């Protein structure tokens, strides 16, 4: 039992190298960049969601260590990416709000590095170990989806609250207009029925 628990713990740490979940604000006419050090054949899994600001869109791109563009999305509200490193080095991914002149954007994102499993030819492969590795990868995928769902829920909640606020203010505005029209009609009708005497 202790051996199985040890294998499970090692598999979880070996499979899930690093996960970054953040919520950032990108000012207008600006960008925010982040880096991940990847070895050849490492997988970079990530997703982002714009939560607030403007039309809920942002520019996203990712470059490899040589500066070559490997992912690109223009004015996107959300995105999910899976990229396998072709070379070792520092990979950069950026969120740009350069096209916006006044509105800042709130972006929720998470990126995780998954190291490939390298079998040791001298070590006998345990089927339980393989199952644990697959389970760990599935758990990571579920976690990424949960982060994405939470970001979407936040976006929809902000939209609903904004719509509710606009409906309330529009109703108050209409009530004010209705009150002014009633006052105008009463005073106009009062003048119409006034008896004018010539002295």
UniProtKB/TrEMBL annotation:
SUPFAM superfamilies, per database record: Supernatant protein factor (SPF), C-terminal domain
Compartments, as annotated in UniProt: Endomembrane system; Membrane
Pfam families referenced in this protein's UniProt entry, alphabetically: EMP24_GP25L
Transmembrane residue ranges: 167-189
Domain GOLD: 31-113
UniProt entry keywords in alphabetical sequence: Membrane, Signal, Transmembrane, Transmembrane helix
Membrane topology per record: Single-pass membrane protein; Single-pass type I membrane protein
Region forming the signal peptide: 1-21
tRNA processing is among the record's keywords: no
InterPro entries linked to this entry: Emp24-like, GOLD_dom, GOLD_dom_sf
Entry GO terms, CC: endomembrane system; membrane
Repeat is among the record's keywords: no
Similarity-based family: Belongs to the EMP24/GP25L family.
Protein name: P24 complex component
Organism field: Dissophora globulifera
């Amino acid at each position: 039992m202790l051996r199985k628990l040890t294998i499970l713990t090692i598999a979880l740490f070996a499979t899930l190298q690093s996960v970054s979940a953040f919520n950032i604000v990108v000012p207008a006419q600006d960008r925010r960049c982040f880096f991940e050090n990847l070895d050849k054949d490492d997988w970079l899994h990530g997703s982002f969601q714009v939560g607030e600001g403007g039309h809920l869109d942002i520019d996203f791109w990712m470059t490899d260590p040589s500066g070559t563009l490997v992912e690109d999305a223009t004015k996107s509200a959300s995105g999910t990416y899976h990229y396998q490193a072709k070379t070792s080095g520092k990979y950069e991914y950026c969120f740009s709000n350069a096209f916006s002149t006044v509105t800042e954007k709130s972006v929720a994102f998470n990126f995780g590095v998954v190291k490939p499993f390298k079998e040791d030819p001298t070590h006998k492969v345990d089927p339980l170990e393989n199952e644990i590795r697959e389970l760990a990868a599935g758990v990571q995928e579920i976690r990424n989806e949960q982060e994405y769902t939470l970001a979407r829920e936040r976006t929809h909640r902000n939209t609903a609250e904004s719509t509710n606020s606009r409906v309330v203010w529009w109703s108050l505005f209409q009530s004010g207009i209705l009150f002014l029209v009633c006052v105008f009609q009463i005073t106009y009708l009062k003048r119409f029925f006034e008896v004018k005497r010539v002295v």
